[in-house]
Amino acid sequence: MFDIGMTEMLVVGVVALIVVGPKDLPGMFRTLGQFTGKAKRMAREFSSAMEAAADDAGVSDVSKTLKAATNPKKMGLDAVKKAVDPSKFTPGSETEKLAKDRAETAKKIHEATAKKEAAKRAAEAEAAAAEAAPKAKAKPKAAKPKAAKKPAAKKPAAKKTAPKKPAAKKASS
Prior knowledge:
Structural class: mainly alpha
Distance between the termini: 125 Å
Radius of gyration: 50 Å
Number of strands: 0
Shape: flat
């Protein structure tokens, strides 16, 4: 718990011998042992009281239920897998006939789906080949010379405003 080695214990013993003295050392160790025993008893009583309270509250039942729910063997998943296995049916039973019919139907559906996928891939390949054929046959067009860029249009010069005319003199009478 405290991870104390033999060298640490030896150092503690030597320090205790020096501090307490050889005469009182056995009494101190006895008292220390009694204190440690009381602490352990109190811890044991506390943990047993907590377990009893948990049992009264039904925590153990809940924990057992949760453990059982998470265990696939106790839930019966293995039994379900065995029951569904078509090779486990008795020969000639109605269940065996139904299982065989279901397996055949699933096989037919799988084959039909595979055929559709193959036809779809073939159609896509033909379409891709048809697109590639005209491009390969077409002659490359002569490259047109690129037109020289026109200089950007000049902004019109700001209009000059005519100088203000002096106000006409008022005619005096």
